[in-house]
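Shipment paperwork, digital attachment
Item: protein structure file
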Amino acid sequence: PRISLKQAEFGKKVEIENLRPGDWVFFVTNKGNVANINHAGLVTELRSNKEVMFIHASSSKGIREDNLYSPYWISCFAKASRPF
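Attachment content:
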């Protein structure tokens, strides 16, 4: 699927503490509820238990790699899944 809300329906659910490279992470950046997932990323690296890097496309900043546990991203985190 093209939109992140539909992408979030695929794969096996993964708890945040069990993430590994290749997992998908989904966010609600518009402060809605989990039914309004509107952003997705791909886990690229586990540096520590509080430094999980993911790559994503920002409409204002282009392609970026950020830490899932940064204050902004962890506050928007909705779910994670592992592709089949």
